[in-house]
Write a structure and sequence with these properties.
The structure holds 2 protein chains of 2 kinds.
Chain A: H1 18-35, E1 37-39, H2 42-51, E2 54-56, E3 60-62, H3 65-74, E4 79-82, E5 88-92, E6 98-100, E7 107-109, E8 116-118, H4 121-133, E9 137-139, H5 155-166, E10 171-173, H6 178-192, H7 195-200, E11 204-207, E12 215-216, H8 218-230, E13 234-235, H9 250-271, E14 277-278, H10 298-315, E15 320-322, H11 333-348, E16 353-355, E17 359-360, E18 365-366, H12 368-385, H13 392-395, H14 397-405, H15 416-425, H16 437-442, H17 448-462, H18 471-483
Parallel strand pairs in A: 1-12, 6-9, 6-16, 7-18, 10-11, 11-13, 13-14, 15-16
Antiparallel strand pairs in A: 1-3, 2-3, 4-5, 7-8, 17-18
Helix pairs in contact in A: 1-9, 1-10, 2-9, 3-9, 4-5, 5-6, 5-18, 6-18, 8-9, 10-11, 11-12, 12-17
Chain B: H1 6-14, H2 17-29, H3 34-54, H4 60-77, E1 91-96, H5 104-115, E2 119-122, H6 129-139, E3 143-147, H7 155-166, E4 174-178, H8 184-190, E5 194-195, H9 199-210
Parallel strand pairs in B: 1-2, 1-3, 3-4, 4-5
Classes of the chains: A alpha/beta, B alpha/beta.
The complex binds cobalamin.
Chain lengths: 484, 213
């Protein structure tokens, strides 16, 4: 009788012991119970007070811990996002990871000139199309804050429509006012085939933010409650960046960010039990020389790894995170190093929804090249994370016997075992260059930035959506944009 | 009579509030002139802090601590000045523009300006153009500083400048703008007087605008 197969250990990074996780959780609850939050939304304040929160001063509320525990109990442990064709695309839960781009950048590196210039709506479309083409990207975000929007106050409605036209993958979107949210919901309903269909197969997720420390502006909470009512998945990370909105020490910044997230979750679940909520704050750091909020620092990777541990130890809810971004201004060695660092650590710690891939300059500039090369970095990290399957076939003792019998000319390269297994056994890079020097020179001696540029251009030229948007839907979308 | 202000400057540079306030008191008790203590003890120290920061030898929290130390000393000096004779470098009205809630950068700029001897009137976030105009008309500041972190709120800077024009106040105040998506080019387009990319250069820009040092 055969023995049971040997399970494959898949490398998993842990950064917190159970007691550290519990202590941070307890501190978060203490913040809610003792310090309280500033809730500027009347409807939410009433909901919270009716549920047991205690008002004090103007707009401040203290929130008892049991409300957090209840909300954690009713929020779903899996958020299932579909693509725009109605197929399952992202099961956000426990150890599943998905990568995608980021939202509003002011500038982009021009694909043709290489210059940093202001974003236009066409850039939003190009980033979405590139995401559609790249296999390791699971969702699209706008990656731009276009300057050429006919009605600037509806920038988020326009960028959403532009993404719809250029990808069929799930979309993570931003909205400013409640009005934006309503229009975007209308657009999403057009694609999904109505409100009921969108609830059944959501392909959108909203990214809203509370303000650290402890502030919940009225319009942000309007959006939160709107999403709960419509069952649009939402995340509400506050910017609890160490040294800015939050304490400089990461434990304190995490506790504050988690407290704010729990408060958001409570309002969300009181609005509609069981509505999908993606957990987790953004805890990066304020750089102590430039005072930028860093997108390339190791601390952000550390805090989100900690959050993944807390998900496993305590919360059970899928989490929001970042990766594949950099503070570098161009696609250089720093960009590669920082992007890879956060990609590999996000994957090893099993963060779930990993956004901002392709950001340069701490989120001020986007780059199609950076997105393209990150696709390969994700593949590389994934190969590592799969681990080493151990069984008869992979131990390959038979192959060894064959090669040995072949005498002095024996080499595994010619053995059938190599032919049969090399594609899954090895990571086969496409952009990362391993060619011999002469071959590389013959190809023009191009660096990674140039090669990524060429690949991005060719994908944008050749890639077609499956299917491209039909003309009727396109007209319907256009009509809404004209109407607003 | 000469009073050694070096220990005071040293204490401000180190951000040692206790030592700095003691030195300030000692200088005052020894008959020191408040204006001299301010200029040669405190502001001179902050200039060195600014230089060291620019050279990468000091970090922001250290710089802010020095500014805080200076403020504590200025508080001690105030009673010694006759009313109205404390020399401020000028008054700056600061705020984040309409519909924008980002304030960390704006606060930092305000603190640094204060550290450099400016008087700050901070209007907070989400400040409407009308509100800016009203404060400018009531307080007659030398400078109006506006912050915007969103592409969607940058137009509010232009709206404010236009509102200042309409109120006949534009030539009474210098306008300085900043925030991550803002550029020098944009400042030119909307008719602002200055753009500065960070808090350190905001101080230099403010001084230049008022031609003080
Ligand atoms: C922290 C943060 C937040 C916090 C703000 C907390 C707070 N109390 O301020 C929260 C979470 C609330 C937030 C919310 C949002 N944010 Co935000 N946020 C940031 C982040 C990460 C850092 C900003 C910051 O504080 N930096 C640190 C300070 C010290 O730097 P600074 O602000 O640039 O200021 C310096 C200079 O610019 C200059 N300066 C600033 N003001 C002034 C004024 C004058 C007169 C002068 C001379 C100089 C000057 O000096 C300062 C000090 O050196 C940036 C990304 C980034 N890395 O910059 C995004 C960012 C600014 N946010 C962005 C967005 C889109 C949003 C949201 C719409 C997101 C959402 N999903 O809802 C909301 C909008 C809320 C609103 N209506 O305002 C975008 C803006 C893109 C754009 N071009 O419009 C950015 C760039 C992120 C991104 N790439 O997507 N955000």
């Amino acid at each position: 009788m055969d023995n049971l197969p040997i399970p494959t250990f898949q490398p998993r990074l842990k950064v917190l012991e159970h007691r550290q996780a519990l202590a941070i959780h307890t501190a978060a609850l203490e913040i809610l119970e003792k310090t309280g939050i500033k809730m500027e939304n009347d409807r939410a304040r009433k909901l919270l007070v009716d549920a047991g929160a205690k008002p004090f001063d103007t707009d401040w509320l203290r929130i008892p811990a049991f409300l957090a525990e209840e909300a954690l109990g009713s929020a779903p442990r899996q958020i299932l996002l579909y693509d725009q064709n109605g197929d399952k695309a992202m099961a956000l839960r426990d150890d599943h990871f998905f990568f995608g781009t980021g939202s509003d950048t002011t500038f982009t590196l021009d694909l043709e000139s290489g210059q940093r210039r202001g974003c236009v709506l066409n850039d939003t479309g190009r980033f979405a199309r590139l995401v559609d083409a790249l296999p390791r990207f699971s969702f699209a975000m706008s990656m731009s804050n276009p300057q050429d929007i006919p009605k600037i106050e509806f920038i988020y409605v326009y960028t959403f429509a532009e993404m719809l036209r250029n990808t069929n993958k799930p979309i993570v979107f931003i909205a400013d006012r409640l009005e934006d949210m309503q229009h975007i919901h209308d657009l999403a309903c057009m694609v999904a085939g109505g409100d009921a269909a969108l609830r059944q197969k959501p392909f959108i997720l909203n990214y809203s933010e509370a303000i650290s420390p402890l502030r919940f502006p009225a319009h942000v909470v309007d959006r939160l409650m709107f999403c709960a009512e419509k069952e649009i998945p939402i995340c509400l990370p506050s910017g609890s960046n160490a040294g800015g909105g939050a304490p400089i020490t990461l434990a304190g910044a995490l506790a504050l960010g988690i407290a704010e997230n729990l408060a958001g979750l409570i309002i969300h679940q009181l609005t509609r039990r069981g509505a999908p909520f993606l957990f987790g704050p953004n805890v990066s750091v304020l750089d102590m020389k430039s005072t930028v909020v860093s997108y390339g620092c190791p601390e952000w990777s550390l805090t989100q790894a900690a959050l993944a541990d807390m998900r496993d130890e305590i919360y059970g809810l899928p989490i929001w995170s970042f990766g594949g971004a950099t503070d570098a201004k161009v696609v250089d060695a720093q960009a590669g190093a920082e992007a890879m660092f956060s990609i590999v650590t996000a994957m090893l710690s099993r963060c779930n929804l990993i956004h901002d891939v392709g950001y340069l300059e701490y989120g001020s500039t986007s780059s199609l090249e950076m997105v393209t090369l990150a696709d390969e970095l994700i593949a590389m990290a994934r190969h590592f994370t799969k681990g080493i399957p151990v069984n008869r076939e992979t131990l390959a003792l038979d192959a060894l016997d064959r090669v040995k019998s072949a005498g002095t000319r024996g080499i595994f390269l010619t053995d059938d075992h190599t032919f049969e297994h090399f594609e899954e056994a090895l990571f086969l890079p496409e952009l990362l260059d391993r060619s011999r020097y002469d071959a590389w020179m013959a190809e023009g001696g191009q660096d990674l930035y140039r090669r990524s540029n060429a690949k991005a251009r060719s994908l944008l030229e050749t890639h077609r959506l499956e299917p491209e948007m039909d003309a009727g839907l396109n007209d319907e979308i256009e009509a809404l944009l004209q109407r607003i | 009579m000469t009073i050694d202000l070096n220990p005071l400057s040293e204490a401000v540079i180190k951000g040692n509030i206790q030592a700095a306030t003691q030195e300030t008191q000692k200088a005052l008790d020894g008959g020191g002139d408040p204006q001299t203590i301010l200029d040669q003890g405190l502001i001179a120290a902050m200039d060195i802090v600014g230089q060291r920061f620019a050279a990468g030898a000091m970090f922001v929290p250290q710089m802010l601590r020095s500014a805080k130390t200076m403020q504590a000393c200025v508080a001690l000096l105030k009673p010694a000045f006759q009313a109205g004779t404390v020399s401020s470098k000028g008054t700056v009205v600061m705020g984040t523009v309409k519909a924008d809630l980002h304030d960390i950068g704006k606060n930092l700029v305000a603190m640094m300006l204060e550290g450099a001897g400016f008087t700050i009137i901070d209007m907070g976030v989400d400040v409407l153009p009308e509100a800016f105009v009203q404060t400018v008309s009531e307080k007659s500041p030398e400078i109006l500083g506006m912050s915007a972190l969103l592409s969607t709120t940058m137009p509010a800077m232009k709206a404010t400048i236009d509102a200042l024009k309409d109120a006949g106040l534009r030539d009474k105040v210098k306008v300085m703008i900043g925030g991550a998506p803002v550029t020098a080019k944009f400042a030119g387009e909307i008719g602002a007087d200055r753009y500065a990319p960070d808090a350190g250069s905001a101080v230099a820009a403010a001084k230049e605008l008022l031609q003080t040092s």
